[in-house]
Amino acid sequence: MAELQLNAPVAFRNARITNPPLLVSADGRQITDAAAWEKQRALIERDWLNYLGTAPYAPLDMEAKTIRVDDLGDCTATEVYLKMEPDYFEQCYLMIPKEKPAEKLPAVVVFFYDIDTPADHNMGSSRWKANVQNRAFARHLVKRGYVTLVQRWVHEGLVAPEDRKLSMADRYAKGVERLRTLYPHWKGLGRVVWDAARCVDYLQSLDFVDPERIGCMGHSLGGKMALYAGAFDQRYKVIVCSDLGIGLSFSNYDAPWYLGPEVRDPAFGRDHHQLLGLIAPRAFLLIAGESADGDRSWAYLNSAREVYQLYGQADRIGMVNHRTGHAPTMDSLEQAYGWFDKHL
Questions:
Q1: What is this structure's pTM?
Q2: Which residues does 254 contact at the CB level (< 8 Å), separation at least 6?
Q3: How many domains, the chain?
Q4: Less packed terminus of the chain by CB within 10 Å, N or C?
């Protein structure tokens, strides 16, 4: 059974990411307390947001279009489109348990390519496969009493039906060009941050959701989305990422739908231990499988744990390494759901 680890194995205990240093200020001083870290945190956040870009239009009123309501037995689910741009709505799926243990429930946003897979319900996605239980995160969580909101990734929403069988690069090419034309200073993962914040806005508008108990989760692409969502929106109290490739060098972050080729430049000067630092002291769990993530990922968690220690919360960052490849195992998911139960 995959075990929850709060400390790295001995062989990786001293591994750290030092470029850039996380707990050294711009004037070379060592950061040793939470107050000093908060100042450093603000600088890191501003630098990243300047790089990622943000919506070049005025804040939008919350607008949700209900498409259909499904009775899935143990829950009621609503396909809803949330307004993300002045003229673009993103597909989401709101799942509400029928048996509510409290007046206000915790909620988890689940990020993925489509809404069908995490909901374990076929709504016509070209990615749908029946009985893929190790991706059915939203359905599992709603059975545990959570409200869940599945959000489709924007680039899947922008794919034309005739392009769905193309290679990833060709499938996303038109969407990448559209966003570059309309919003040239907005990175793909910057757009993810914006959309994820809109998901929280929506959940907080629902009277049966506890606005202070919202988390997020995702696998692979969805894990990347969850990392960026949690790093730049403190309303996400618990973040679970599965085999996303926690390091910039671990995955295809240079793809134009994520960040771009500049992340491969040694002078880029940013890496994801900084995002983990931004999440601290909120709870973060990495599911690894010795594929995109594994023992080598401890360098990132170790670096961030030093920030968690400044808050006296070193036990709020950990890893479950099932060592069986890219896909999460059911026992690793049980550990993740238990992490939500404990921290959310």
A1: 0.98
A2: 260, 261, 262, 263, 264
A3: 1
A4: N
